[in-house]
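In this section we walk through a basic example: taking a raw amino acid sequence and producing a predicted 3D structure, encoded as discrete structure tokens. The instruction is simple. Fold the sequence below.
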Amino acid sequence: MTKRPWKSLGYAAAALTTVLFGRALLRHSRRTQLAGKKVLVVGGSRGLGFAAARRFLREGADVAICARSEAELTRAVGALRDVAETMRDTAGEAPKVLSLCADVTETQAASAMIEKVIAEFGRVDVLVNCAVEVTIGPLEALTAEDFEQAFRGIFFAVYRPTMAVLPHMKARGFGRIVNVSSVAGKAPVPHSGTYVAGKFAATGFSAICAAELRKYGICVSTIFPPPLRNGAWLNGSYKGLAEEELTWFARSLHSPLTSADPERAARAIVEAARFGDVERMVTPSSFLQARLHALCPSLSIALAAFLDARLPNTPPGAAALPAFSGEELVTHSGMPALGRVSRAARREAQRYLQPVADKLG
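The resulting token sequence is shown next.
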């Protein structure tokens, strides 16, 4: 009688080992070499997109980056070409760097972008969708226009480039698409209503693409990073009690428990492109948060409500109050703690080419 539990445990361990080994073999079978691949990074002029573009160059890939600002593209291309110069092969060839100025939330602009990359590189092997916009504030401070802008800047920034590149990848029978979502695309984060809604939509779209495009040889991956320490919060929009909203958000972005180094997320993007992983969580905290909401949504919502009760109150007439950028608020704030955090953010922003005068893109 005493042997049966150990025997059952042995069978379970053997089954688990077989499953994990089979999973590893399947993952290895999807592996592709990135050297020589043609990679397009949408939102690649700064932040996480820039970090990912830099890492793809170090893998020996040719990289095109897209953004809405010519000035940002010029600055990013200069930095990326410096990286490319260090990657010259034995024949003296360096990876190519291409820049494209486009608003990919427009159908024609997204299609034209893909056509230009194909004209220059001959093909698109990997598409990385990394553009994003962030607005922080309580639900009552967010308007219908805020949600419409979020869907334009988050969901359609993934949808348009993906649909534009599909005919090309289907015709070739190969492609890798990596969509950067967020842990907020798996579990709700209070006072981030537009961001959560946009990311949930992008996560769902990415998942259905992963299911329906595999038959064409196209692997679609979704990356779920937590907030990143790249100084981007200086360009976010804040509503309601804007200065207080900025303060809690900035502090969360500088806590090692709730944020991550952008290089870690960039590495996850590159590895997802290499192996065609369906999902990649960037940190243990993002994994746990997502799994908690999936397995026990009632507890996840209770914890979110607990956090919400400790965030800034909603002022009367919040929806009519203007939005402020993080840079505007920091400039006029007299809070010493916010000043210290903003100085650290500026150092991070410089590292990832983040401007401090406009919204994220």
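Looking at the output, two observations stand out. Residues 32-351 form a domain with the Rossmann fold fold (CATH 3.40.50.720). The chain has a mean pLDDT of 90. In the next section we compare this with other chains.
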